[in-house]
Amino acid sequence: MPVQSHAAKLLRLAAKQPAVSSRELSSAGIPARTVSRMAARGQVRRVGRGLYTGADGSPSAHQSAIEVTRLAPKTVVCLLSALEIHGIGAQAPFEVWIALPAGTHAPKGTPAALRVTRLSGAAFTEGIETVVLDCIDPAEPAQLKPLLHKPQRGSSCSAP
Length: 160
Prior knowledge:
- The chain is of the alpha/beta class.
- It has helices at residues 6-16, 22-27, 32-41, 63-71, 79-85, 122-125, and strands at residues 20-21, 44-48, 51-54, 76-78, 96-101, 114-119, 129-131, 142-145.
- It folds into 2 domains: 6-54; 63-145, no CATH class.
- The strands form 2 sheets. The chain has a 5-stranded mixed sheet.
């Protein structure tokens, strides 16, 4: 079997997933200069710092959440974004809601606007449901945490 060129390997990875990080590309043996050359030629699109998509691929319905979890794999998609991914509610948030452990820094350079909540202990670790979005490699799936709260008296539903 012939050895694949770096460019062919990059195109194959970008076609398989809605977003691929530079960390994944370097672990696949693709040099950074190959990635930047292909982005300059328009063969792949750079959507954020260290994040690439295929040039001809159509964006996923959950593209923003996918991009954020690819750049910061330890984040947990929560609240309104998790509800939207699960198809609950009528809101389509313009920000990606993520939860981080208390004391951690929010990811920088993300292509989407973020709304960050900081949680500690069981509030962060309990109730996480692992969901595979689109063609994302199950080794690093996006994590979702709906964090629904009981409605308060006089309101139909509340989510912090």
